Amino acid sequence: MFSPGDVVRFYSYVAGKAKYHLCISLRGHFLFVNSPKSKTFRGDFFVPCSDIPCLEPTDDGRSIISCSFLVKMSDEELRHVGATKLGSCAPRILRDLIKFVEQSPVLSPDEKDAIVDELGDWV
What's residue 56's pLDDT? Predict the structure, then answer.
């Protein structure tokens, strides 16, 4: 339904509200895209807002791709939560994301493999 690099808005049962997500696979894997918070986490991958132009820029000019939780949604689930593509991120972000994920201490080996294997075919 969506392609790697697509920025998609849909209701998140984890957050309890609509959230922005980065599609990282053709099999329905997504990562949260957030605004920076006062507390950061080891799985936070910071990107310039200019590399995700479909989202409103944040006050500090950066967005966070949260690599601490991999969301898996089927096409049916995506339709149910009103998934809408807003745009795409810069292709360089996907290459940088792979490097970040490979070094991440917060993802399991299976999660790392899912992200790297899926994105590796696109970049």
Answer: 93
